[in-house]
Amino acid sequence: MFFTKTALESALDSAVRDGNYSNAFSPFIDPPIDTVKSAKVICKALDNFELRTEDDYQHLNLLSQFFNNPTAKNVRDVFYERGIHLLVKHYEHLVLIEHPDHALIHQIVAIFANYEHPDTVRRITYAVASFPNGDAWYPIMDKLLTPENALYQSIIFELSSHAPGGDACLAFINALNRLIENDDLDSHPLNTLAGIEIFKTLPYNSSKGSVILADTLIHLDLLDEAYLQTLLSDGSFEMKLESARILALRGDETAIETLTVFCSSYFYAAKAEVYLIAAGQRRAVGETMKNIDFRAKARLAAYLSSVDQYAAVPDEISIYDSRELFWPPTDSIEEVWLLKYSYEDKDLEGIGMVGTVTACLHDEVTVGMDPDSCYALHCCYEMDLLNDPRCPETRTVEAGKALLNHL
Length: 407
Prior knowledge:
Elements: H1 7-18, H2 21-25, H3 36-48, H4 57-65, H5 73-94, H6 102-115, H7 121-130, H8 137-144, H9 152-160, H10 166-181, H11 193-200, H12 207-216, H13 225-234, H14 237-249, H15 253-262, H16 269-278, H17 292-304, E1 316-327, E2 332-343, E3 348-354, H18 371-385, H19 397-404
Antiparallel strand pairs: 1-2, 2-3
């Protein structure tokens, strides 16, 4: 009986013959791998492939991408049982090359995080220690540090005992903070005497680093008063704000005064107000926050400075439009604002909306767009958040305007 080779099998023959895996397999990246037979071909390609020089990076890059595309459990099982071991073999060769491709290493580690194979824990922690820089660590840590991930406890144990450096460290701590805030961890792994000493050595000289480490302070009960006082006087704005939060809860007058000063700047006022109220110091908030336009700016500044956005306050916020209008997501009259913001160092500007929800629809709502169109897109966005059955399938200006005009 004769068996006809699939196109993927023919590509493998060509790759083995010519040594050019990229040319042979690139036509098959889309659509995704949807059969066990196809998955086995990819595994066979990895088994035949040899990583000899930097020129082979692109071949391994392409072959590893197939791991992101299984469409069924039995296809994923092939990659888990056969493919991961082959990918580990190439990874261990890759990291020993004199000038390895860091982006490729991060890509493979992301696959390890997704497949949750126990044999990859040691490889992941090695990559964290040896190749710690790059924004790729943020989605990797978010994937690893979820209770649903089989590697979750092992990764926390391995990395808590010796904090990694660079972006990997910040991504790790940021993911830990989220676990605490979501009640998925009872206590912060760094909230130990040894962990506190590690924390004190971490630099916060970048805006994102400053925000992440400042957000961590509230979870570290064992931080000593002297260290918090040092942050209050000499730390970054984010560190001053968060140390003042803790010290104000203890009745520290200087911390309360510091938070009152923060309330006079819309860049930090939203958080400062919350912290003063939590400390029983509502009167210390002052008069500025009673101005509704100022409050709107403060809400947008707090949103933009979060780690999920720009991890830094903008250089300027100005009112582009404000009005009262019937708002379909709440079926009531709402006061809303469109605010322009800019970051000089990023050469970036945009428009955010403050109302029932504070949000920026990056790449959708842009500077130069008329206010009605901005509101229309945000209306669709909020209805989608609410799973409102009236929400249009596609978020468009036209669909949003139809909702806003249907009284």
